[in-house]
Structure formats: C-alpha cells, structure tokens
Amino acid sequence: MRCRLFFGRLWLNKSMAETAILIANGDLRLSANQVCWPAQQAAEQKVMEAVRSLGYSVERGHPYDETKKHGFIDSQKYGMEVFRRIPPTAPLIVVEAVWQYSHHLLHGLYTHQGPILTVANWSGQWPGLVGMLNLNGSMTKAGIPYSTLWSENFDDEFFLSGLKRWLEGEKLAHDTRHVRPLGSLRLPADCEEMGARMARELYRNKAIMGIFDEGCMGMYNAIIPDELLHRTGVFKERLSQSALYAEMLAVSDEEALAVRRWLDAKGMKFVTGPDPETDLTDDQILQQCKMYIAALRIADDFGCDTIGIQYQQGLKDLAPASDLTEGLLNNVDRPPVTARGNGRILYEGKALPHFNEVDECAGLDALITNRIWTALGYDPETTLHDVRYGEEYGGEYVWVFLISGAAPPQHFIGGYAGASSERQPPMYFRLGGGTLKGISKPGEIVWSRIFVDAGVLRADLGRAKVVELPREETERRWQITTPQWPIMHAVLYGITRDQMMARHKANHIQVAYAPDAAAANRALAVKAAMLREMGADVSICGTRHGLE
User: Fold this and answer.
1) pLDDT digits (tens, 9 = 90+) for 10-47
2) pLDDT tens across 166-199, in order?
3) Helix, strand or coil for residue 268?
4) Are 91 and 114 in contact, with CB atoms under 8 Å apart?
5) Pairing state of beta strands 9-12 and 3-6?
6) In the 3-class helix/strand/coil scheme, how is 13-47 assigned residue by residue?
7) Of 141, 139, 307, which Cα lies nearest the Cα of 237?
C-alpha cells in the first residue's frame, strides 16, 4: 500500500484512502451535553454530507449514548476508550458546535498519525467557534499539526473548497497577512525604553500570580509552563478553591452586607427572584460578596499581584458563581475590604487583576497591562472576553466579545449605574450566583493574546474600536448568545473575520481602553517592547498602529 508523509502523519493516497473518522468532545456536565446535543448533531450531519458529496466516506468514531442522551466524548477516560478503536492513520475530523473540554481528546490527538481537521460552526447560541479556538490553541501549544475550517452552514465555497483540499492531502493554510513580526517594525524610542525598563523591573522585583486550582475546563492552552513564566519574573502561588471556600465561611454576614449596600448605593441593579433554582436570590448575592472579601484577603496573605479562580468547576457544587467577584476585582473603584482584625484596606485604590477561568496567559497579560496603563496614567481596568461571535453591521464586521461577568464596571456605559447582575443559567450553575453585566462603552482599545506555541511564549497585539450599537441590535445579539453576560461590540482594525479565526490561538482575548487612538498606539508600543524584553516572540496584528 502506497502512502506519503503528511507533516509527520500518514495520509493514504486518494485511491486507497481510509474512511474519515468524525469525533466530538463536549462538556463534562451532563445537563449541558444533553441541551447542546441537537445542535451538535445537526452540525455533524452537515459536515458528513459535505464529505460524502466530495466522494469520500466518513463515519462517527463513537456512538450516541441512549442512557446519557447525547453523543459527546464527555471525559478524558472515555476519550481514551474511543481513540483505542480509531485506526491510527485515519483522517480525523473534530466537529465543534458547542463549548468543549479539550483534555477529553487531547491525549489521542498527541499520538494520532493521520491528518487532523478541526471544524466549527458559526453561531452565537452554540459556541462551537469558541470551543474550536480553545482546541486549536491547545494543539498549537502541544505542537500537534492540524488544519482548521469554520462555516455558518457548511455549504459555502470557503468551507467546501478547504474541505476538498484537506481530503486530497493538503495541509490548509489561511490568510494571515495581517500578522507582522515586531522585528519588522520600529517602535518609538521612548516607548521602547519604557517597555524594556518595566520588563527589567518586573524581572528584578518579581510578581506573584495566585492560582485557585489550575486547568479550568481542560484548557491546556491556558496553562503557562513554569519554566516559561519564571523567565518573565512572575511566579505561581498555587492556591486551592477549598481554601477560598473556607475563607468565605469565616466572613461575617455584616461584612458581606456592607459590600452589597455599597453596590446598591452605586446604582447597580440586582435582578432577583424567590426561587433559588432559577432566580438570583439575596442569599446567593451575599455568598458572592463573601467570596469577594475572601479572595482579597487570601491574595493579600500571599502577596498576589493577580489572581485567577477556576470558575465553573470545583466550587460549583459548594458556592454560587464567581462572576460578580471577578468583575469587582478588576475595577479600581470597588467596595473596600479590610484585612482580618484591623482597618487596613486591601489593595486600596487599585484593581486586583483577575483572570477568568484561571487562564494564566490572560493573567500574565492582565498584570502587564495593569502596570503599563497605570504608568501611562490611563484607566488600568482590563479583562478577558470570549471571542464569541460576530456579524456585519453598518458596513463593518462587529465582533461579539462576551464574558461571564469578569468585565469591570469602568468598561460599561454608565459604570455601576449601567450594570446589572443576573442569575447564571441553571444548566451550568446549580447554586446560582449573579454576573456583572453591562454594555461596553464606545472607545479605543488595545487587544492582545499571550499564548504558548510548542515551547515558545508568544504574544499577538492589535488595536480595535468599541462601537455602540442600537439597543435593539445589542439585545438581539445578547439573545442569540448569553443575555446574562457583559457584552462588547468590537471592530478590529485591519483584520477580517477569517484572518482572526486563522491566527488566534485561544477562545479568550484581553482588552483595555485608552483615552484616544494616539494613546492606544502608545500603549501598544510600550506593551510590545515590554513583552519582547520579557522574552516573548511578539507580533503586531492588523494595521501598523503608528509603528514604522
């Protein structure tokens, strides 16, 4: 049998090609997998029809489970069972129509010898593109070669031509002309000096990243290996969510009520109801306020400069969601919290940057951003968002950046008075808890993503503007995504939708506002210089942003 090497993996000639195998990894939670299965099944059917229309055979690599009522690979254990039955050289298609846990199948992708194609839907309601970006980032970190495609209906020319080329043995390469190595551009001398100096200061003085349990939701791409992180001067303090919960139990009701009263006085709206199974209740909010206090006290105990809470797993069976806590921590103006037993206000006049879902790449980014923006005299509030969805509007491609509640009120139209807290969906959070919801204000932002690429720390930086859409359009976008979460309408400068999907190596993107376009260009230049001095391989994405 004749065969040829496909980027280190075996691919049989078309005349003797093996049947392509389709697999699908899902959530860990049964409720989520059951609700999402019909959307996944519909996407898979369209992908298989497209493969067969091109003259190739395809079959699922694992069956529908009649007991569980879904057909996802829902654990690492089951994923290993599935891969033991998959021919090691078969062309492998991973279809993502929902959020997924990458570690459910990363093990099998490591050792699979045949070519791998990841495919995502394009839907706000069913975030397959978010899941695929996470899986792609994880494989990039692991050094696993793969191709990738995305489509709204799996019948367009972009998808079908790409699928045909992949089935014929071609590794797909998409347009990434928007990416420029920093070495090809010249930074302003003062920005170069400032960024390099701040990097040296960080390396000399060190900083601590507090990790409340590592590896949320199997996000392998969100873990920075210690040996790469230490070169920047940042070191992990590995903390436990059990310690956070224990500290919550030590916080008095009166202390928590003081936080709630502070938020009420700011005009923040809590959308409450009587049924804890489906509504946000006052008791859930009280527990979230206790988590906020507990997080600050533990961070102070260990001298943390930034912290991350695992979010959906770990504490979900003990406490309400951490979203309200996260959004407050990321804001400079927030309820004051004192140290145990004395009146010292913790992190007074400062944000304590929180990185959602313990995404350490976002944590390092948040720490750097906070220091640069503070040094420049800009509002230092920063957060990560999911790259959730996007559509054309008014002649521009407007992305939906959406996160579960970690966005700071300083980013919202109206600040706290424009913010609300709504119960997280019961499908994910049995014990409830509210988000910190708002509409991001129009303005200039710097976006970024730090990621690991086969042992190398890399960073992509770019510019964007946040636009204000009509309220009815915002509501429509909320309703087709997650209406309880804060939203940002972003237009990336010099980057198309498909270029973004081709390059971005994470489901997350970091954002921070600047006073105007010139200030944003300056902040981007200083950040690029600092990251380069820290040892990262830096790229500028989109237009030149004032760089020569």
Assistant:
1) 444 443 357 999 999 999 889 889 999 999 999 999 99
2) 999 999 999 999 999 999 999 999 999 999 999 9
3) coil
4) yes
5) antiparallel
6) CHHHCCCEEEECECCCCHHHHHHHHHHHHHHHHHH
7) 307
